Amino acid sequence: MFTVCALYHFTRFDNHAALRAPLLELCLSEGVTGTLLLAHEGINGTIAGPKKGIEAAIRHIQSLPGCADLEWKLSTAAEKPFPRMKVKLKKEIVTLGQPNVDPTAHVGNYVDPADWNELIKSPDVVTIDTRNDYEVAIGTFQGAIDPETASFRDFPAWWDENKERFHNKRVAMFCTGGIRCEKSTNFLMSQGVEDVYHLKGGILKYLEEVPQEESTWGGECFVFDGRVSVGHGLKEGPHILCHACRRPILPEDQERQGYEAGVSCHQCVDDYSEADKARFRERQKQMMLARQRGEQHIIGVD
Q: Which CATH architecture has domain 109-219?
């Protein structure tokens, strides 16, 4: 059993590049895999490994400048969720593309999972899912608005086109673990929206703490690791990943027209050229040969 740790923290790193090598070395020495992003604005990512290894990684991150009050969420996976460990340097730890957005200055009102249902049922509240379209497709909260964005960077433009729909409304926002809402609520406040709320700890914390019989969540929550999706109690969901388009599919979708293992699924069969598909088939062939040799062919799920 592997311990999975999702974390993020906004703080000012004066020299984030200098933090990379010691962090990577620590994770490798502790048998921890996954991806961590470092930027001037902080740290973000998901890692997995033995419990002691995750605890060591958390202690190391807490020792970084401004990270003493780091928060994280733990869950488990039956199989290794990540093939390797990566620490990447980025301009943003979650990309909104709005240079004036600063979550360390101010954000919306945090709402505990236990109080979320009451808030989003209020008639003067509009609930917005800030995740990407393929994430929303497999699960969301009842009555939530789907902006149908392909990436978080598209959210500001969507808001500008739709803001008049939400005049005189309180806005409640949510995402997987909470990090996107740190930026999206700050962005809305900069746009003059006064009453902005977001789900503390995100969907993952809600699914962990709120009993299923009291839940207003429907479906599964997409996660960026080998589990692909989780449900109530953070139990692993039924989804698998199409390794061509990286979207989640159900096992029965493998029987649908357009599915070819490692090459395409019903969602992306028309999105790639024959040259692309030939390249994917070669990759799939190398994966099969690696398995036959008892090796792991890394294509990456992170």
A: 3-Layer(aba) Sandwich (3.40)
